[in-house]
């Protein structure tokens, strides 16, 4: 049953995503991509729970590596997006 | 269920809402920065509340990883030049993929008594993560010219790909049957990494906007699949948003080239088409001095930038010229083709960096209906996106692609290094039109020359 419930969420999220992104103007497509990059760093949540749970050693290290990688994505992604968006100015 | 897990899940709902609002604000340049901050806030809150999880017993390792990751992220974000955004975005795509790969792998290794469903979705996350990682690394190498940019294809590549797909399917079956055997994990990861490489190798430089968008989408889908493996709603929602974004961008890029995704992914295998069509007319070069007299008299000027502008770093000089033209009474606009540059929106960011107002940037469909009204169209380092063959030469490989009709402006100046063809390898009849003049040389120097003439 959990699988069905998760699929439900997925289906709704995809529709929301399509509706939202369709409205992003072409001029913002690069910041959209780098921002989306940062959002995909959401994996960090999964990585945290794996790294901290006291699994066997190998899994813990994998989790820690994932925390590190996803953090690069999140921090780097949001900062570079902000840097770009700050440049978009009206005359 | 402890009290904490209810709090955690409640905050996840909040954070999903913030992500959605953040993306909504991206619909206009004036609110986009706020949107990005909202999205960052959503991520921050989600991370903090995840640390409340009572099952987490050791925080030291996590904190160390946070610190190192943040430092690396800050350095990357600060140091990168705007011209290298495509490289950075592909690198970030790859890192995201690798993170999802590690999470999925750890789930397979660390979990006990996993259900077939969890094993299967972990496998999918592992697969997409690995493909995203190796594919992005190849894309990054091609973009940063550490690797040759043209398509790489070899005999039997299609059969190799089919064999690879079958191998991946086999590894899925083996992992489901014997999830605890490490060899199957290695096999699956190795094959998936190879798949990513094989996917990007046959794709050429000009098609990079499509590949980056596609890999962007994959990095989201990998997070989404990891969400299924960990039964984490927020991972699924955020991953789906990213996946949708990448798919929409991929679609826009393909449409702008009048090709299907399948055609882009496999075109490297096909022989380059050559047409025997002779183009009538001759090429007329023009010096920057003569160009100045035309520009001085112009009332309206349209600038059409391409990847060449990024390579020459000519956007700042162009902005100087724009100001001089405007103080001379001319109206200056920019026309941007969806696939100009190496990633979606690349030109817009470069011009924004040079302080050009976003209200002066127009999309192809806005400009084309009124292009006859412009006195001068200046094409800077663009080729295929202004090629009239797409409109009038049936049989041309790019026939049918929507282009900016620069040739319909009263005068066209093409700033170009030499007579090389564009990435599509097609001759450009624009250069032979009676109203077109070529100004050969480095775009930045040419524009600098014009600026000096105006200043005198």
From TrEMBL, chain A:
<dbReference type="GO" id="GO:0005886">
    <property type="term" value="C:plasma membrane"/>
</dbReference>
<comment type="function">
    <text>The transhydrogenation between NADH and NADP is coupled to respiration and ATP hydrolysis and functions as a proton pump across the membrane.</text>
</comment>
<feature type="domain" description="NAD(P) transhydrogenase alpha subunit C-terminal">
    <location>
        <begin position="7"/>
        <end position="90"/>
    </location>
</feature>
<feature type="transmembrane region" description="Helical">
    <location>
        <begin position="6"/>
        <end position="22"/>
    </location>
</feature>
<keyword id="KW-0521">NADP</keyword>
<dbReference type="InterPro" id="IPR024605">
    <property type="entry name" value="NADP_transhyd_a_C"/>
</dbReference>
<dbReference type="GO" id="GO:0006740">
    <property type="term" value="P:NADPH regeneration"/>
</dbReference>
<feature type="transmembrane region" description="Helical">
    <location>
        <begin position="34"/>
        <end position="52"/>
    </location>
</feature>
<feature type="transmembrane region" description="Helical">
    <location>
        <begin position="58"/>
        <end position="81"/>
    </location>
</feature>
<keyword id="KW-1278">Translocase</keyword>
<keyword id="KW-0472">Membrane</keyword>
<dbReference type="Pfam" id="PF12769">
    <property type="entry name" value="PNTB_4TM"/>
</dbReference>
<dbReference type="GO" id="GO:0008750">
    <property type="term" value="F:proton-translocating NAD(P)+ transhydrogenase activity"/>
</dbReference>
<keyword id="KW-0997">Cell inner membrane</keyword>
<protein>
    <recommendedName>
        <fullName>proton-translocating NAD(P)(+) transhydrogenase</fullName>
        <ecNumber>7.1.1.1</ecNumber>
    </recommendedName>
</protein>
<keyword id="KW-1003">Cell membrane</keyword>
<dbReference type="GO" id="GO:0050661">
    <property type="term" value="F:NADP binding"/>
</dbReference>
<keyword id="KW-1133">Transmembrane helix</keyword>
<keyword id="KW-0812">Transmembrane</keyword>
<keyword id="KW-0520">NAD</keyword>
From TrEMBL, chain B:
<dbReference type="GO" id="GO:0008750">
    <property type="term" value="F:proton-translocating NAD(P)+ transhydrogenase activity"/>
</dbReference>
<dbReference type="GO" id="GO:0005886">
    <property type="term" value="C:plasma membrane"/>
</dbReference>
<feature type="transmembrane region" description="Helical">
    <location>
        <begin position="152"/>
        <end position="175"/>
    </location>
</feature>
<keyword id="KW-0812">Transmembrane</keyword>
<feature type="transmembrane region" description="Helical">
    <location>
        <begin position="114"/>
        <end position="140"/>
    </location>
</feature>
<feature type="transmembrane region" description="Helical">
    <location>
        <begin position="58"/>
        <end position="76"/>
    </location>
</feature>
<feature type="transmembrane region" description="Helical">
    <location>
        <begin position="6"/>
        <end position="23"/>
    </location>
</feature>
<feature type="transmembrane region" description="Helical">
    <location>
        <begin position="234"/>
        <end position="254"/>
    </location>
</feature>
<feature type="transmembrane region" description="Helical">
    <location>
        <begin position="35"/>
        <end position="52"/>
    </location>
</feature>
<keyword id="KW-0472">Membrane</keyword>
<feature type="domain" description="NADP transhydrogenase beta-like">
    <location>
        <begin position="9"/>
        <end position="452"/>
    </location>
</feature>
<feature type="transmembrane region" description="Helical">
    <location>
        <begin position="208"/>
        <end position="228"/>
    </location>
</feature>
<keyword id="KW-0521">NADP</keyword>
<keyword id="KW-1133">Transmembrane helix</keyword>
<dbReference type="InterPro" id="IPR034300">
    <property type="entry name" value="PNTB-like"/>
</dbReference>
<comment type="subunit">
    <text>Heterodimer of an alpha and a beta chain.</text>
</comment>
<comment type="similarity">
    <text>Belongs to the PNT beta subunit family.</text>
</comment>
<feature type="transmembrane region" description="Helical">
    <location>
        <begin position="88"/>
        <end position="108"/>
    </location>
</feature>
<keyword id="KW-1278">Translocase</keyword>
<comment type="function">
    <text>The transhydrogenation between NADH and NADP is coupled to respiration and ATP hydrolysis and functions as a proton pump across the membrane.</text>
</comment>
<keyword id="KW-1003">Cell membrane</keyword>
<dbReference type="InterPro" id="IPR012136">
    <property type="entry name" value="NADH_DH_b"/>
</dbReference>
């Amino acid at each position: 049953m959990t699988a069905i419930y998760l699929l439900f969420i997925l289906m709704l999220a995809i529709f929301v995503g399509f509706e939202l992104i369709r409205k992003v103007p072409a001029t913002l497509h690069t910041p959209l991509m780098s921002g989306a990059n940062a959002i995909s760093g959401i994996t960090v949540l999964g990585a945290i729970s794996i790294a901290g749970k006291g699994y066997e050693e190998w899994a813990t290290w994998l989790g820690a590596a994932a925390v590190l990688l996803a953090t690069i994505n999140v921090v780097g992604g949001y900062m570079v997006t902000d840097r770009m968006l700050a440049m978009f100015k009206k005359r | 269920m402890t009290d904490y897990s209810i709090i955690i899940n409640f905050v996840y709902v909040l954070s999903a809402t913030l992500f959605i609002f953040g993306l909504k604000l991206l619909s206009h340049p004036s609110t986009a920065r706020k949107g990005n901050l909202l999205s960052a806030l959503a991520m921050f809150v989600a991370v903090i509340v995840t640390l409340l999880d009572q099952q987490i017993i050791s925080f030291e390792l996590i904190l160390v990883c946070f610190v190192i990751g943040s430092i690396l992220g800050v350095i990357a974000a600060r140091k990168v030049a705007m011209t290298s955004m495509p490289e950075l975005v592909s690198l970030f795509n790859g890192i995201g993929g690798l993170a999802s790969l590690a999470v999925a792998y750890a789930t397979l290794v660390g979990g006990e008594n996993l259900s077939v469903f969890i094993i299967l979705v972990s496998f999918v996350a592992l697969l997409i993560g690995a493909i995203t990682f190796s594919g992005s690394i190849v894309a990054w190498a091609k973009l940063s010219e550490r690797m040759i940019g043209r398509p790489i294809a070899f005999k039997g590549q299609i059969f190799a790909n089919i064999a690879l797909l079958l191998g991946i399917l086999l590894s899925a079956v083996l992992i489901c049957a014997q999830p605890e055997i490490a060899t199957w994990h290695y096999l699956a990861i190795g094959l998936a990494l190879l798949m990513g490489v094989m996917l990007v190798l046959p794709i050429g430089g000009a098609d990079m906007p499509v590949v980056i968008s596609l890999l962007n989408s994959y990095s989201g889908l990998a997070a989404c699949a990891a969400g299924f493996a960990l039964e984490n709603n927020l991972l699924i929602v955020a991953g789906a948003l990213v996946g949708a974004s990448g798919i929409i961008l991929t679609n826009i890029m393909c449409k702008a080239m009048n090709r299907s995704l399948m055609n882009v992914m496999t075109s490297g295998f096909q022989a380059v088409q050559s047409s025997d069509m002779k183009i009538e007319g001759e090429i007329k070069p023009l010096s920057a001095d003569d160009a100045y007299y035309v520009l001085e008299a112009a009332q309206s000027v349209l600038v059409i930038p391409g990847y060449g502008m990024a390579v020459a770093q000519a956007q700042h000089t162009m902005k100087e010229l724009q100001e001089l033209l405007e103080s001379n009474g001319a109206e200056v606009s920019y026309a941007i083709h969806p696939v100009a540059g190496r990633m979606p929106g690349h030109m817009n960011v470069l011009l924004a960096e040079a302080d050009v107002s976003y209200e002066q940037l127009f999309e192809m469909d806005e400009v084309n209906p009124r292009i006859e009204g412009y006195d001068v169209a200046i094409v800077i380092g663009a080729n295929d996106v202004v090629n009239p063959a797409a409109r009038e030469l049936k049989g041309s490989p790019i026939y049918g692609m929507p282009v900016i009709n620069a040739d319909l402006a009263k005068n066209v100046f093409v700033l170009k290094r030499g007579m090389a063809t564009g990435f599509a390898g097609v001759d450009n009849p624009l250069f032979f039109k009676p109203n077109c003049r070529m100004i050969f040389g480095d775009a930045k120097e040419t524009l600098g020359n014009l600026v000096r003439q105006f200043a005198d």
